[in-house]
Each structure stands twice: as C-alpha cells, then as structure tokens.
From TrEMBL:
It comes from Solanum tuberosum (Potato). This is Peroxidase. Ca(2+) 2 binds at T205, D256, T259, D264. The active site is at H74 (proton acceptor). The gene is LOC102594915. GO terms for cellular component: extracellular region.
Length: 336
C-alpha cells in the first residue's frame, strides 16, 4: 500500500513538473518573441516616428503624459497589453473603455496613440505593420521621458486583441480605496512584486483625480472620525476647500500637490508627509512592510526609476499576444 501511494505521489509530482515546465516554456516563448528591434526590417524608424508624433501631442496638451501612462496601465491590467482598451463599443457589446472604471480616462491618451498610429501608417513601408499595442507601449515610454522621467528601451512584437468587453473590467483594476493587503495579490497575479507595485504607484506623480475618488477620506471616514487620520490635517483642509461636498464632477485635484506635471519622486516624499491623495497611495507608507521602500524611493530618485523601468517592462509582457494570435489593427478603435 505504501509503495502504491509513493508511486502515485511520484507520478503526480512528474505531472506537476511537466505542467510547470510548460508554463515556463510558454512564458519564455512569449518573452523571446518580444524584443527591442522587432521592427528592424519592417519599419526601422518606428520609434522615432512615434516619438515625434507623441512629442507634438504632448506640446499641445500637457495632460497627455498622465493620460497615456494611465491608459497603458489599464490596458495591461485588464486582460493583458493588447490595446483592447482602445476598441470602441459596437452593436450590443459595451467595450472596456465604456466601463465606469475607465470612463474617467482622459481622451488625450487615446488621441496620442491614434495620432502616432496615423504617423506610422503614413510611411508606405510601415503601413499596417505596427500594432496599436506596441504603439501604446512606445508612446507611454515617450511621455514619461517628456515629463522628466527616465528613458528606457521597450520590448516590441505585441499584436492587438480582437475582443473588448466591459465584463472583463470588474476585479481587474486596483481602486483608490484599496489597502495594501488587497493590492498585493492583484499585482502578484501579474508577476509584480511589492517593489514593482510601489514603483508603479509612483506614476501618481503625474495627473489629476476627481473629488469622488477620495471624498470619503475627508468627509465620512468612519463613525468616529470625519477625516482619515493618515491624512495631514492641513492638507485635509486644503482638499475640503478645493473639493466641497457635492462638488461639481468637473473639479479635479492634482495627485501630486507639488509637481503634478513632472515625473519625479515627489510622490514618495508626499506620502511621508501624509499627502497621499488616495487610500491606495497612503497605505504604502502606513504599512510597515512597504514603508522602507517608500523611504528609499523618496531619498533616491535613481533607485525609484530603476525599479519603475523593471516594473514597466514586466507589466508590458503581461498577457501579450504574439505570433499568430491577435492582429495588427488598421484602425486602433475597431477590429479589422
């Protein structure tokens, strides 16, 4: 009986090892198909074409940086980096972009990708050869650099998804009221560590938020306290002045009250001072397990940028379609 059980366990372990090897092999295969010079022969100047178009858009509307960065994050987190976030709703199908969690995405991010795609396709040799997913990844890298952040190499070779449904959005995006214990498993399921989580949260050094995303922290925290005690008291009063109760939906507040248009490490310094706008921001400092990383990034911009680049690279591999999967859309907003 013992021999039979041992043999059964042995066979079970072999099957488990084969399954793990298959998963690793599939991931390695995907990573191998993504590489920096993917368009070297088909569209050798693609990066400079995209950069020029994105820079022109950025000069016209500075919120392009935050909008594009957030668009990339939402796209990758929902069902992988396949530009499905850009697809329009059609017929009886409501696309990802029209889900309530995505409605607040600024149109300048979409516009940056669409204009860059048009610029690429305007080159005869490149027409219909570069995916919208890759253009979004390149555009995101470019707006980060334009806003003062690091310039980094982007792996390319993604293909565009053909499916976009609002049903894929719930439970796939972190919300402003999430605490660290809820954020960690969400990021871990995408292969991202706590350091990656904190570095990616540093993207909140750019952009703005609507009042309803944090109003409960300054007006109705709980039955005993009106204001969240983790918020600096002076900052809380400033927020109440800028965001009165029942504020107009058009009112927006900078995520970084000091340098909202610059990609720097001020976000982490603000967390140290109780000036994280969202619960999901301030929790990174109030929890002991993440506070040391916040302190490191606050004191060392280079360390933050290094981990941010690693996190963006890893996120950019999540759920990608390569080879014969997906397509290269002629129009980023509709399937071919």
């Amino acid at each position: 009986m013992d021999r039979l059980i041992s043999r059964s366990q042995f066979l079970h372990l072999i099957l488990l090892l084969l399954l793990l090897l298959s998963i690793v092999s599939n991931k390695s295969c995907i990573n191998a198909q993504l590489h920096r010079d993917f368009y070297r022969n088909s569209c050798p100047n693609v990066e400079s074409i995209v950069r020029s178009a994105v820079e022109q858009k950025y000069r016209q509307t500075i919120v392009t940086a935050a909008a594009t960065l957030r668009l990339f994050f939402h796209d990758c987190f929902i069902q992988g980096c396949d530009a499905s976030i850009i697809l329009r709703s059609s017929g009886n199908n409501t696309a990802e972009k029209d889900h309530p969690d995505n409605i607040s995405l600024a149109g300048d991010g979409y516009d940056a990708v669409i204009k860059a795609k048009a610029a690429v396709d305007n080159v005869p040799a490149c027409k219909n050869k570069v995916s919208c997913a890759d253009i979004l990844a390149m555009a995101t890298r470019d707006v980060v650099a334009l806003a003062g952040g690091p310039h980094y190499a982007v792996e390319l070779g993604r293909r565009d998804g053909r499916v976009s449904s609002q049903n894929s959005v719930p439970n796939n995006l972190p919300h402003s009221e999430f605490h660290l214990k809820k954020l960690l498993p969400m990021f871990a399921s995408r292969g991202l560590s706590i350091r990656h989580l904190i570095a990616l949260s540093g993207a909140h050094t750019l952009g703005f938020s609507h009042c309803n995303q944090f109003s409960s922290r300054i007006y109705s925290f709980n039955s005993k306290r009106k204001v969240d005690p983790t918020i600096d008291s002076i900052y809380a009063k400033e927020l109440q002045e800028m965001c009165p109760q029942n504020a107009s939906p058009g009112v927006v507040i900078p995520l970084d009250p000091d340098t909202p248009q610059v990609f720097d490490n001020m976000y982490f310094k603000n967390l140290q001072r109780g000036k994280g706008l969202f619960t999901s921001d301030q929790t990174l400092y109030t929890k002991r397990g993440s506070r040391n990383i916040v302190n490191l990034f606050a004191s060392n911009k280079t360390a933050f940028e290094r981990v941010f680049i690693a996190a963006m690279t890893k996120l950019g591999r999540f759920g990608v379609k390569t080879g014969n999967l997906g397509e290269i859309r002629k129009d980023c907003a509709v399937v071919n």
